[in-house]
Write a structure and sequence with these properties.
Family: Belongs to the tetrahydrofolate dehydrogenase/cyclohydrolase family.
Pathway: One-carbon metabolism; tetrahydrofolate interconversion
CATH class of the largest domain: Alpha Beta
Order of helices and strands: EHEHEHEHHHEHEHEEEEHEH
Number of domains: 2
Bound molecules: 5,10-Methenyltetrahydrofolate
Strand order of the largest sheet: 1-11-8-7-5-6
InterPro entries: Aminoacid_DH-like_N_sf (IPR046346), NAD(P)-bd_dom_sf (IPR036291), THF_DH/CycHdrlase (IPR000672), THF_DH/CycHdrlase_cat_dom (IPR020630), THF_DH/CycHdrlase_CS (IPR020867), THF_DH/CycHdrlase_NAD-bd_dom (IPR020631)
Shape: globular
CATH architecture of the largest domain: 3-Layer(aba) Sandwich
Keywords: Amino-acid biosynthesis, Histidine biosynthesis, Hydrolase, Methionine biosynthesis, Multifunctional enzyme, NADP, One-carbon metabolism, Oxidoreductase, Purine biosynthesis
Subunit structure: Homodimer.
Largest sheet: 6 strands, parallel
Number of strands: 11
CATH topology of the largest domain: Rossmann fold
Distance between the termini: 47 Å
Helix content: 40-55%
Strand content: 15-25%
Oligomer: single chain
Structural class: alpha/beta
Radius of gyration: 19 Å
């Protein structure tokens, strides 16, 4: 039976360190500040935004929330981003995705100052990561790397298989694993014989967004399984991208959903905001 990697516990430990860092900075007269911008009424997004606000509050980080109506124009959103870029109280800016169709997402992400880009989605920060000189690293993949580190998983020379090639998780986590000398394979919907590719993996990182797509018999005996999926099935139930029960029979360690990668995502957002404030000090 696999060891359960307790994301909540790791997140709690790191949040304690972040709170201490925040207090230290406050003594120098700087309060880290995060601006979160939500456009529209998507109920899931609202939940995430309030979780971020609560987490900031607990860590002593100033948080400023902007809730804009679903019909907000691109120009109005760009004007708000510009205002936040120039606001000295704000060290991190996050524009919650997805954005409504009248707004060009790339344009907005590129308008955020790369020095306040707490999500790490600006092409400047994407480039910094891919040349091995990261400034802001995207929160979910960063959280995955911290979990592996906390579990004592050494990636040097290991086979990592990433399932999913999104800009938010798949691509950046592949870069991060490469930086730690893993042999990285990135799979996607066109990958042939996906099950066989996954069977090679010492570490599987599933980030496709399809409930329980990764089957237990795809997992090599003793592999580490990181499940980034957060799929709502039915009214309330949350499941990952991995068939957890079956995969646990073969893996040496596995992240649950919920309580795995999710809590780490918000933790790394707090961390990025703190680091950004430190850089201004
Ligand atoms: N610009 C931007 N940055 C984001 O980081 C971003 C975003 N847009 N849009 C939406 C997604 C989603 N996201 C999550 C954060 C925490 C949990 C989390 O803590 N989940 C808990 C469960 C929460 C529940 O029960 O719903 C868990 O997995 O244990 C999940 C998902 C950040 N996102």
């Amino acid at each position: 039976m696999a060891k359960v990697i307790d994301g909540k516990a790791i997140a709690a430990k790191i949040r304690t360190e972040i709170s201490a860092g925040v207090q230290e900075l406050k003594q120098k007269g700087i309060t880290p500040g995060l601006a979160v911008v939500l456009v529209g009424e998507d109920p899931a997004s609202r939940v995430y935004v309030s979780m971020k606000e609560k987490a900031c509050h607990e860590a002593g980080i100033f948080s400023d929330e902007y809730k804009l109506s679903a019909d907000t124009s691109e120009a109005d959103l760009l004007a708000l981003v510009d205002k936040l870029n120039n606001d000295p109280k704000i060290h991190g800016i996050l524009v919650q995705l997805p954005l409504p169709p009248q707004i060009d997402t790339e344009k907005v992400l590129e308008a955020i100052s790369p020095l306040k880009d707490a999500d790490g989605f600006h092409p400047y920060n994407v480039g910094r990561l891919s040349v091995g000189k990261p400034l802001f690293q995207p929160c979910t993949p960063y959280g995955v790397m911290i979990m592996l580190q906390e579990e004592g998983v050494d990636l040097n020379g290991k086979e990592v298989v990433v399932i999913g090639r999104s800009n938010i998780v798949g691509k950046p986590v592949a870069m991060m694993c490469l930086a730690q000398n893993a042999t990285v394979t990135v799979c996607h919907s066109r990958t042939r014989d996906l099950a066989d590719v996954v069977r090679r993996a010492d570490v599987v990182i599933a980030a496709v967004g399809r409930p329980e797509m990764v089957k237990g018999d795809w997992i090599k005996e003793g592999a580490v399984v990181i499940d980034v999926g957060v799929n709502r099935v039915g009214e309330k139930k949350l499941v990952g991208d991995v068939d957890y029960a079956a995969a646990s029979e073969r893996a040496s360690a596995i992240t649950p959903v919920p309580g795995g990668v999710g809590p780490m995502t918000i933790t790394m957002l707090l961390y990025n905001t703190l680091e950004s404030a430190r850089r201004t000090a």
